[in-house]
């Protein structure tokens, strides 16, 4: 019981000294420095170049009139990518299908599907008709 009284007395004296005594300039000077967190957000590099994106944008216009969110029974996205090709060429790392991917992501997968064959700069005439590209 005596130990409890001594502990209570010591706690009370400590509490009163914190409340009553003014802050010591030594203690104020010894506070750790305040650190500020600086966050820099870097924009990721584009998946395809602006020229390639422009070419695929024309194809998207021919295929779906720029409906990058188009969902069909067999094709998806503005470029009309089949679900099988979307999966086979790595599209699922971006989205479940082309309709849920960004235009850049669709152009990237379309470029992988297209391989070494060139994309027309502006698919008009024989490249762009009512049946698509």
Describe the structure.
- This protein has five helices and two strands.
- The protein has a domain at 50-127: Lysozyme (Orthogonal Bundle), CATH 1.10.530.10.
- The model is unreliable at 14-18 (pLDDT under 50).
- Strands 1-2 form a two-stranded antiparallel ribbon.
- It has helices at 2-20, 25-29, 50-64, 83-88, 103-114, and strands at residues 75-76, 81-82.
- The chain has 133 residues and is mainly α.
SSE diagram, text form:
Layout: H1 2-20, H2 25-29, H3 50-64, E1 75-76, E2 81-82, H4 83-88, H5 103-114
Antiparallel strand pairs: 1-2
Shape: elongated
**What's the pLDDT, averaged over the residues?**
79
Poorly predicted tracts of residues: 14-18
Judging by the overall fold, what is the CATH architecture of the domain at 50-127?
Answer: Orthogonal Bundle
The biggest sheet amounts to: 2 strands, antiparallel
Oligomer: single chain
What's a concise summary of this model?
The protein has 133 residues and is mainly alpha-helical.
Which properties best describe this structure?
Lysozyme; mainly alpha; elongated; 133 residues; two-stranded antiparallel ribbon; 5 helices
